[in-house]
Amino acid sequence: MKKTVAVDMDGVLADVENHFLNLYNQNFGTKLTYEDIKGKPEREAFPDPGVVMKFASTPGFFRTVPVMKDAVEGLKKLCDIFDVYVVSSAMEFPQFLEEKYDWLAEHFPFIHWKKIVLCGDKKIVNTDFMIDDHCKNLDFFKGTPILFSAFHNIDVDKYVRVDNWKDVVSLLKIYA
């Protein structure tokens, strides 16, 4: 029986960091960079309070998020070795249920709908591995947690860390 892997969407499959930066710079006429927000929690990364929530709550937001570099190829490789589930929080913004499903269908059509879990709290996840960019999702995980690098978690050192999808595939091949 194959081992199971839960893969987060936001910040792991979907490049929400660059999406937020691009939207912020377009809307406010700034040139904010990754270095400007590096090491800050999401709620403090952008100078205008609430802008992340405003952008995320805008209909169509998630449908326009770019795919993380090498994520498609990397996830295909994982699917050959593991039983892979895409697990994402999608209840805070009601439009995310449909948008995230449609985004996955467009960019990751090889992921069967039965392998997509859109939830409110990831504490229910019971896989062998979980790849996520948020410690709040990994802190209570009973399997092996893997932290995907993001601007908001750069100073965290309590989990095995991967910086990109090539790292993900290399690391998980060891456990196959």
How would you describe this structure to a colleague?
- The structure is a single chain.
- The chain is of the alpha/beta class and 176 residues long.
- Helices cover 38% and strands 15% of the residues.
- It has a six-stranded parallel beta sheet.
- The longest helix has 13 residues, at 16-28.
- The model has no long low-confidence stretch (mean pLDDT 95).
Topology readout:
Blueprint: E1 4-7, H1 16-28, H2 34-37, H3 42-45, H4 51-56, H5 71-81, E2 83-89, H6 95-107, E3 116-119, E4 129-132, H7 135-138, E5 144-148, E6 160-162, H8 165-175
Parallel strand pairs: 1-2, 1-4, 2-3, 4-5, 5-6
Helix pairs in contact: 5-8
Give me the count of strands. 6
Major sheet attributes: 6 strands, parallel
Helix content estimate: 25-40%
Subunit arrangement of the protein: single chain
List segments where confidence is low: pLDDT < 50 over at least 5 consecutive residues. Answer: none
Terminal CA distance: 11 Å
Any descriptors?
8 helices; about 15% strand; globular; alpha/beta; about 180 residues; six-stranded parallel beta sheet
Summarize the structure.
The protein has eight helices and six strands.
